Amino acid sequence: MRTLFRWIKRGLFLLVLATGGLIWLVFFSARPALTMNPAVLAGDGSTLNYCELPVLDNSGKRAIDIPKGNTPGCGYTRFPMPILSECTESLPEGAADIRGLWQGVSGKVGHVERVEQCGERVVVTSSGIIHDMGPNATGGLTSNDTEGGVYFTLGETQYCPRTSAGVKWQEEVLSFRVLGWGPVVVRRYLDGDHLVWEYADGSTTRMKRLCTLPDGHKYPAPRGPQIKLF
Fold first, then answer.
1. φ/ψ (deg, to 5) at 86
2. In whole angstroms, what is the distance from residue 146 CA to residue 126 CA?
3. pLDDT digits (tens, 9 = 90+) for 76-118
4. Which residues have a Cβ under 8 Å from the Cβ of 10 and sit 6 or more positions away?
5. Model pTM score
6. Do residues 40 and 26 both lie within one domain?
7. How is 21-42 classified by DSSP, letter by letter?
8. Using an 8 Å Cβ cutoff, are 217 and 128 in contact?
9. Where are the beta strands (DSSP E) in the chain?
10. How far apart are CA 190 and CA 210, in angstroms?
11. How many other CB atoms sit within 10 Å of the CB of residue 35?
């Protein structure tokens, strides 16, 4: 019996240690430095026509020539400029062209996101976050960003949950995997004129193409409930 209690204590200790380490990693570990062109955040992406897309004819920069983008702090404050505007690398075999600006018409109705593609690289910008995945000049292949939901405030500093995902095309379906190798949490694919977004919460959102950013989306909505610790 003593041996059983000893193993239970060890198990509980390891569980608490692992939970604490995960909380530290998700909320308190150092964020990567912003290496993308400062003009991305300084510019106003709400003024562009997203029906006028770059021609992917391999005449300009490749995906790997352009610095990696990631969310500034807990979210951008104004809809940013595109990250891959100078990239003209053609898409890989098996990839669908889902570039452009999209808005949900079923499921998460009203959701707006911008999708950029160049070579094997994909950037999704929406709701204060910038998910940049694939070959780049300054970072790894997976995204290194924040996510919506609860965030903590310690004094004047905000701590929001971090996320990391990688993407892979399979028969023109783009799958997002946790850390690049974990379970699939998001799928995006074309169905007629719609972009379909399947999310980890079980929802399926169909989105229509837009040319300009709708009113009310230039500045992102609040990220979620705030817990002020002190």
1. -100, 5
2. 12
3. 999 999 999 999 999 999 999 999 999 999 999 999 999 999 9
4. none
5. 0.88
6. no
7. HHHIIIIISPPPPP-S-THHHH
8. no
9. 100-106, 112-118, 121-126, 129-133, 145-146, 151-154, 157-159, 162-163, 165-170, 173-178, 184-191, 194-198, 204-210, 226-228
10. 15
11. 13
Name the domain count of the chain: 2
Distance CA 174, CA 167 (A): 6
Residues 65 and 168 placed together within one structural domain of the fold: yes
Residue ranges making up the domain that contains 18: 1-30
- Residue found by looking up tokens 């009203």 in the block: 110
* Beta partners for residue 221, in sequence order: none
Do residues 175 and 74 share a domain? yes
Query: Which of 184-191's residues contact partners 24+ apart within 8 Å by CB, and which partners?
Result: 188/98, 188/115, 189/96, 189/98, 190/96, 190/98
Q: Which residue has tokens 């790894």?
A: 140
* pLDDT tens digits, 109-142: 999 999 999 999 999 999 999 999 999 999 899 9
Q: Are residues 98 and 7 in the same domain?
A: no
Query: Where residue 142 sits, what CATH number does that domain have?
Result: 2.40.128.20
Look up residue 53 and give its two tokens: 């897309």
